[in-house]
Fold this protein.
Amino acid sequence: MKKLFICLLVLMNVSVTAQNSNHEFFPKNKLLKDIYLDPFSPKISGGLYMMWENGEKKDLTLGAFAIGIHKPIFRNVKNGTKAFEIGFELSSFTQFEFYYNKVGTHKRQHLNTDFIIAMPLVWKLNDFYLRAKFFHRSTHLGDDYIFRNCLTEPDAKPITYEQADVSLFYECKQAIYYAGIGVVTRSNVERKKLNAYLGFNNFHFMGKRGKWKLTYGIHSKFEAETNFKPGVNSGIGIEFGGKEKNYPLQIMIEYYNGFMPYSAFEQKDVRLLGTSIRLKL
């Protein structure tokens, strides 16, 4: 991490000293749009999903809740068409199981929590964006799950690792298309290193003066750890609130097919179908 921060300081110094450029600290808006169908994008959201495991429907509802921030720290803009930004991300992703026990009592079980801290670097050239992202991820089984299953040792491999990603984004009118590759640089246990991802987001303004918009997209991820079987998250929904407020409320129907997208149970082959609500603050 020490080497990473030294590199960031060097990059910042290069950007600050660039000619014909404007720079600012802690800009209000992000340079790159959110990739909201990425399960690990920083966001404030909650969703409830029906769940199938190995083709069999489970008698439970999976609740997935996220609290995350993405804050730009520094931005340098040159000639109006080029820009560079350093950001900071901090997120918590928590999963619960809601179910009825054998006597018909409704129960809630804290399954797992993932923590991610990341530092994205974004370069913009016209409609293209290049993002380098360095992040740390750790997973933690929920106390409810541990106590109710009388566990004395983990029944799922804990996940703690650092990863470096490089992604290319192309913005075309209302749509953004992207693809990237990542490499695990350090892990607490043996872990296959390579992964890749691609997808798109799109939207259409609706209603008078664009008071709301229809939004949809797909995010696909391929990890060596799960033999590159694609994990595909697709969704369609509506964003409310108007252009002036940047549509602060999003309601979306989502369908996921692949290995569990988060938690220590990433080897579970699942399908998820449900509804999510996201706040853009």
Notes: The helical segments are 2-16, 143-148. The longest helix spans residues 2-16. The longest strand covers residues 56-78.
